[in-house]
Amino acid sequence: xxxxxxxxxxxxxxxxxxxxxxxxxxxxxxxxxxxxxxxxxxxxxxxxxxxxxxxxxxxxxxxxxxxxxxxxxxxxxxxxxxxxxxxxxxxxxxxxxxxxxxxxxxxxxxxxxxxxxxxxxxxxxx
Length: 126
Ligand SMILES: [Zn+2]
Fold this sequence. Notes:
three-stranded antiparallel β-sheet; binds zinc ion; 10% strand; mainly alpha
């Protein structure tokens, strides 16, 4: 979900919370893929036919691929959420995370926002 669309639909705090939940769900997937990788490595010594070894190699590759993808996704979502959160403080009154979107949401950064406390407007680079 794009930043502007998420802020308009849920508000900044809910958007931020959802981003953190999404990123940590990817971390859990990374941990499961590590378990799959360890299981495939352990099973490699027990299989003797080439069909079983091929299946084990495919499982090992799938676990490694999913693990790398989910780790990359976890780091991206977490760093993006933190990058936006570091810009969520109103420069005029220092109120954190209480702003509304100015205008219609667009996919192009920056996102223009307005403080609910003092009506100051600033941009958030996404
Ligand atoms: Zn303000």
